[in-house]
Write a structure and sequence with these properties.
Largest sheet: 4 strands, antiparallel
Number of strands: 4
Order of helices and strands: HHHHEEHHHHHEEHH
Strand order of the largest sheet: 1-2-3-4
Structural class: alpha+beta
Number of helices: 11
Helix content: 55-70%
Shape: elongated
Distance between the termini: 60 Å
Strand content: 5-15%
């Protein structure tokens, strides 16, 4: 009875420890989910989102220059005078219920607002750049993990076959039907395959760690990526088989799209505009006068000196008064070259020159980037078409080689050659699928918007 009870306890304990593995399977992670998870966990992306909010606050601050300063204040003054009405006043009370003023340099305010607006546009497009780069790197790491794990599967299958082959060759060698060269070749090939499998497993572990880091996971978290590759759409196939003039027209259209949508270009062009506005902020100091408006609504009261009687010109009651004053101030001293506004203006002019050179170099690079990524995508597409059929041929070739080897028609070397061709063909096919997906992501990244559907 004790043995039975102990066995029951062990079974119940085992089920309690491993309930998940017995009843549930891990959900597959899609590339779309991976991208969203990478964005959620990326601090650079979240920091740039905060930067966008900061630039919006800076724009609000620039608009705030058009809002007047509004205040209230009160004062009490003791008065002592030997002449005029003031000699009859002992103290004065004054309450400025509304004391408002605004000073505006039109050129400075307008250009400050426009420069702040440009800053927000730059921040928004920088956020797009970071998002696009995160998306691109995540897709690449995602498919690299798939490639690494598929390589492990292929290498494992090959390893199993080579072990069976070594058994067969060893048996034949012991019976004198197989040469020592075939025996040593089979043994050496298996040893090399073991090493290749170890390396493939190491690559798969490294690919998993890199993807986990990118997703913000624990480095050892298990991920089951969805390795289903969708069929290439009819539109993409049509684009991939373009030749000569049609291909050139398509590439030129992609360049035009990039010039319109690429966030880096928008940032660089907006930076030129921002430097212009910053320059005008400083030049406005000596080009424009500053206009001001002061408004005041006041309650005041006098304490009359002893022996003084109120009159029509002098009262000890609370009285109301208001005033509005308009005016302008021109800083003519800013016209002089030593004034700091001129130095600041020149700084912005030089920054604009630097940005212009950077923009020109970037535009030159766009055409080359698009052509290179388009050709990479096209090469991967052609490789998919070729390798898909080659896998079937290589599998048939391997089956035929096994039959002929078992029948004694071919030697072991030809069987091993057939196995190598099968491994290479399968790897090339998976590599082509992965390369195509990565090339699509890279091309979208260069264009600045999703021309080709990624997920």
């Amino acid at each position: 009875m004790k043995r039975i009870n102990i066995a029951r306890i062990i079974i119940v304990f085992t089920i309690f420890i491993h309930p998940v593995s017995a009843q549930q399977t891990q959900e597959k992670l899609s590339v779309k989910e991976a991208v969203f998870k990478a964005l959620e966990s990326n601090n650079t992306y979240k920091s740039m989102q905060s930067r966008v909010a900061e630039t919006q606050a800076q724009l609000d601050e620039a608009w705030g220059a058009l809002w007047p300063s509004i205040a209230s204040d009160a004062s009490y003054a003791r008065v002592g005078s030997s002449f005029g009405n003031s000699k009859n006043i002992e103290a004065q009370y004054s309450i400025n219920i509304i004391n408002s003023t605004i000073t505006v340099n039109p050129g400075s305010v307008y250009n400050s607002i426009m420069a702040a607006r440009d800053g927000r546009i730059i921040a928004e497009n920088n956020l797009r750049v970071i998002r696009s780069n995160i998306e691109k790197s995540t897709i690449e790491l995602f498919y690299n993990l798939i490639l690494a794990r598929e390589t492990v599967k292929i290498q494992t299958e090959s390893n199993i076959l080579l072990k069976e082959n070594l058994k067969t060759v060893t048996k034949g060698y012991n019976q004198g039907r197989t040469s020592r060269l075939d025996y040593l070749t089979a043994k050496l090939t298996l040893t090399n395959s073991d090493t290749d499998l170890i390396n493939a497993q190491s690559d798969a572990e490294r690919a998993l760690e890199l993807l986990n880091i990118n997703l913000g996971n624990n480095i050892n978290s298990e991920i089951d990526p969805d390795s289903t590759f969708s069929d290439i759409s009819a539109d993409e196939k049509e684009v991939m088989i373009l030749e000569n003039d049609k291909k050139e027209i398509f590439v030129n259209n992609l360049v035009s799209e990039s010039l319109k949508n690429r966030p880096e270009l928008i940032m660089k062009r907006t930076a030129l505009s921002q430097y212009d506005h910053n320059k005008r902020v400083h030049s406005a100091t000596y080009i424009w006068p500053s206009f001001f408006v002061n408004g005041r609504y006041t309650n005041s009261k006098n304490d009359l000196a002893p022996g003084t009687s109120p009159s029509s010109n002098l009262t000890d009651k609370w009285t109301n008064s208001w005033s509005v004053m308009f005016g302008a101030t021109y800083k003519w001293g800013a016209l002089a070259p030593p004034d700091i506004s001129h130095a600041r203006e020149r700084q912005q002019m030089e920054k604009k020159k630097q940005a212009q050179y950077d923009l020109e170099d970037f535009i030159k690079q766009i055409n080359l980037d698009i052509i290179q990524n388009y050709l990479s995508m096209k090469a991967a597409f052609n490789s998919i078409l070729a390798q898909k059929e080659n896998v079937n041929i290589a599998e048939e070739n391997m089956k035929a080689a096994q039959i002929q080897f078992n029948s004694g028609v071919i030697d072991n070397n030809k069987l091993l050659d057939a196995n190598v061709r099968l491994i290479t063909t399968k790897k090339n096919y998976i590599q082509s699928l992965v390369s195509y997906s990565i090339a699509k992501s890279a091309l979208n990244n260069v264009i600045g918007r999703e021309i080709f559907n990624l997920y």
